[in-house]
Design brief:
By secondary structure, this protein is of the alpha+beta class. The protein contains ten helices and twelve strands. The strands form four sheets. The protein has a five-stranded antiparallel β-sheet. Strands 2-1-3 form a three-stranded antiparallel β-sheet, sandwiched between helices. About 8% of the residues have low confidence.
């Protein structure tokens, strides 16, 4: 079997053993819209070469080697779902999906971004975020990364890790503010065409706006600048391969154990 490393300029570098199926049919790119960077029958070589090229070209680096990825197909009770690196595809149209999902309550599967499962709450999320396949009206899909992150903020299927909760995040009928920000950014192509350097510069720009608002004692601009900074930080984290929730959880886990005292308007932690 021959493995190909393909490059979609400005988008990604990936590996496949079937260019027509993976790049053209699944992702919608024609032959003149991508290039083949390397080919080999050695899956170990091609797996490490993919990571090397992702670093050279400045793309997000995969967390797992291609050779270590699990098989794509996972069988549920009564339907076969197809799990790829980016999506989980259901073998039915959107208008029939909810009933099929309700028949699969309690089932779970693994993705590169974490464990996903079906319960009444996650069914609601799926139905709000599912998209019809552009190649087959009898199939529909959700993005694994967004679905796995949903479980970070909702106590479903016992997959929650016990992180810090955010306003509205644990209500099954409401997306978290961060989910809404990410959906807004994704729809506008920020994650496909943006990068961490640009978002960092944007963050500094917004920090300047906040400084001016403080100096001018402008309450409206103060709120606006902080809100803009949260939006930028959410997108910066996403482009860096982590979630803003994870970053906040990590920070809170550290500061929650700190002791110290206030000095000149600043909390100074105790030294060991």
């Amino acid at each position: 079997m021959t493995y190909c490393i393909y490059h979609i300029p400005g988008k990604k570098i990936g590996v496949t053993n079937n260019l027509e199926d993976r790049v053209t049919r699944q992702q919608g790119y024609t032959e003149d819209e991508y290039e083949v960077l390397d080919m080999s029958d050695d899956i170990s070589y091609i797996s490490h070469r993919e990571i090397e090229l992702q670093k050279i070209f400045g793309y997000k680096v995969d967390q797992k080697l291609y050779k270590d990825l699990k098989p794509n197909k996972t069988k549920l009770n009564h339907m076969n779902i197809n799990v790829t690196e980016q999506t989980t595809t259901f073998p039915c149209p959107v208008n029939k999906l909810k009933g099929r999902l309700m028949d699969e309550i309690g089932m779970s599967w693994d993705t590169d971004h974490g464990k996903c499962c079906i319960d009444p709450q996650s069914v609601r999320w799926i139905m709000e975020n599912v998209k019809s396949s552009m190649y087959n009206n009898e199939r529909c899909y959700v993005y694994n990364k967004a679905f796995a992150r949903y479980f970070d903020n909702n106590n479903c299927c016992n997959t929650k890790t016990g992180g810090l909760q955010f306003s509205g995040a644990n209500r099954p009928d409401q997306k978290s503010r961060f989910d809404l920000i990410r959906a807004w950014a994704d729809e506008r192509g920020l994650y496909d065409k943006g990068d961490t350097k640009t978002q960092y510069l944007k963050l500094m720009e917004e920090a300047g706006e906040l400084g001016r608002a403080i100096l001018k004692e402008d309450g409206e601009e103060f709120v606006d600048a902080i809100g803009d900074m949260v939006v930028v930080l959410t997108n910066l984290a996403e482009l860096g391969g982590v979630s803003i929730e994870h970053c906040v959880d990590e920070a809170y886990a550290v500061i929650s154990k700190r002791t110290g005292k206030m000095q000149n308007g600043t909390f100074v932690k105790d030294t060991l």
